[in-house]
Specification:
Elements (H helix, E strand, L loop, with lengths): L4 H4 L7 E3 L14 E2 L10 E2 L2 E3 L8 H16 L28
Antiparallel strand pairs: 1-4, 2-3
Length: about 100
């Protein structure tokens, strides 16, 4: 059986969220965490974050909720989502062969 082109090339989508948390009263501080995983960048500093749990098509509100969930999971603090607060999101679209070492 010969595989057709459409069965070989599939689009793989992975969505991750990371949190940069600032205190408006202490402009010189940024919350980060030390990576302890046995994977990429062990021992380096990183923003809290991780993969988005699937819930259909990710939308803005879902991504914000997932970012705050990751913050609670990885750092152990719970921060309320304040409506109207400014959140910034950036997307990276990659073509070709990639690995997990994207920063």
């Amino acid at each position: 059986m010969e595989l057709g082109r459409s069965s070989v090339f599939k689009l793989i989508t992975s969505v991750g969220v990371f949190v940069a948390l600032f205190n408006p009263h202490e402009h010189d501080k940024l919350l980060v965490r030390r990576r302890v995983e046995e994977v990429t960048f062990r021992g380096n500093w990183d923003l809290p974050g991780g993969g988005v749990e699937e819930a259909g098509e990710p939308n803005y509100d879902h991504l914000v909720a997932e970012a705050f969930r990751e913050l609670q999971e990885e750092v152990g603090i719970e921060v309320p989502i304040i409506p109207g607060y400014v959140y910034s999101m950036y997307a990276a679209f990659l073509k070709g062969k990639t690995s997990n070492d994207l920063a």
